[in-house]
Specification:
alpha+beta, 4 strands, 32% helix, globular
Length: 102
């Protein structure tokens, strides 16, 4: 899990989300915005329509945050989950996420 300093604050959503460029993968929509901070910042977004229970959404957010390395990236990343990844092999979506963020 990354620290709270490395997550995107609510104020950045209004400023950067619409300007961000997007990349589609089978499991994620990743929006990247240029930021001049020393480390990357991340936000993992899971819609209630995708996964119904908040407990399950929080569990998946923890899994995704655990795979991220803020020291390797220098931009803002909005990671939006397209479909449930609990039944998918973790190595598949982790590789997909790391390849896209490079």
């Amino acid at each position: 899990m990354i620290s709270k300093k490395q997550r995107i604050p609510e104020l950045f959503f209004n400023e950067y989300y619409k300007k961000a460029s997007s990349t589609h993968t089978p499991h994620f929509l990743i929006k990247k915005a240029i930021h001049t901070g020393p480390e990357g910042r991340f936000a993992v977004i899971i819609a209630k329509k995708t996964i119904k229970h908040a407990v399950d959404r929080n569990e998946i957010k923890r899994l995704v945050y655990g795979t991220l390395d803020p020291k390797r990236q220098k931009n803002l990343y909005f990671i939006i989950l397209k479909k449930d990844i609990r039944n998918t092999d973790p190595s598949v979506w982790k590789a997909e996420l790391s390849n896209t963020l490079l």
